[in-house]
Input
Amino acid sequence: MNLLVVGISHRSAAVETLERLAVGPEAAADLARALLRGGEVREAVVLSTCNRVEVYAVAASFHGGLAAVVDELHRVWGLTETQADLDFASCGYVRHGADAVAHAFRVAAGLDSMVAGEPQILGQLRDAYDTAREADQVGRHLHELFQQALRVGKRIHAETDVDAAAPSIVTAALDLAERALAVHGFQNGLTETRAAVVGAGSMGSLATATLARSGVASLAVANRDRAKAERLAAVWDATAADYGDLAGLAADADLLVCATSSPEPVLRAAHLAGRTRPLVVCDLALPKDVAEEVALLPGVTVVDIAEIQKADAAGAAADTLAEVERLLAEEIEAYNESLRADAVTPTVAALRSAAADIVEAELARVARRGDFTDDQRAEVARTVHRVVQRLLHEPTVRVRELAGQPGAPDYARALRDLFALDAAVLAAAQGDHLAEALKVSPATAPVADALAPSPASTSETAATAPAGKTPPPQS
Output
């Protein structure tokens, strides 16, 4: 199986391109369903945020999987041949195998975010995984990858100062807004500011919480679903406002934060007609919530994601990032070691299957002889099985250990060549159902540790797994 990450982000595309190619929740769900229907992709998770659209996929082949994902991305984006300037090749990236693992871990740690170390992405990654899991779009491979990525992200935030050193995009935007307000005479920062938030989703909720904690003079919240705005306002002692009266909301505000999921701008120049006082607007949405003409109005300053990106307004301290990188390197290598050891498991299974066939054939020959009693035949069977198990135990344990080392040769191919393993037997052993079936208890099989697909699969070998590593659910 081939692990792929295919996507676009603020690192590969301009903000304007991200805005045009944004994928909403319904489109993301449709994308995953279409990929699995196509047959080439076996597992899929779609991560869509204001800064990225990424497909995590497991495919039978690299090229087939990549072509399927790119084709479906183009379909969801609605791109035609006349829009060649926006095709995937012009703004996307692909990560494969170990590089895909490293990318997933870096995303979970917040190191691939616009503001290094920001914590929101961990929750977004968890939501994407949960959505795919509930839709039965995640199998053994992506389950393990996301479980480990989420664990690593939590470890990074728990064991380093990245949370304190790296504020979220909301905090970075409000820092820029505070500077703009100071230019307009607000010398006491946000404490004398009348603020309003449009949108009560994850970004709007975070903006509301941050503004409330900063001690703004007044705070209002508007949302298309007024009940949601009222609930958020109640938590932060704010006022729920009418979403249909953005002009009235803006008229009473010095700082306006827009963070909706609308596909079209929600704030236009007409909403600010006749306004004479200065206004700072933070647009945290992609696609943009604030129409282009708003920034041209006198006295209006717009801070959007592009401004945050250009200003590099916030980031984790260099020493903190160095510590995060060290932990990430440790976790990535441990996970890739388990994957390398996993790769030899189907061949080990094929070897054991071939040995079992030989044993059964010989036992059948003995059974045809009339000079053995039933007890003697049973003892011969037990003896032969013990001999085979003892002969295979040490080599199969060692081959998994050796295969897990960086730069290890292809031990699976060596075993196939040495023992002339039948291709049909090996193909059968490569099925996921057999890989799951091999997760046997060491209490009932002396060579279970040689057959387990990953170090965390059995209680006997769990101590050798990376810290916190949890096995996928058993079938």
Q: What stands out?
A: The beta strands are 2-9, 41-49, 52-59, 93-96, 194-198, 218-222, 239-241, 255-258, 279-283, 300-304. The first helix runs from residue 15 to 20. Residues 428-475 have pLDDT under 50 and may be disordered. The chain is about 50% helix and 10% strand.
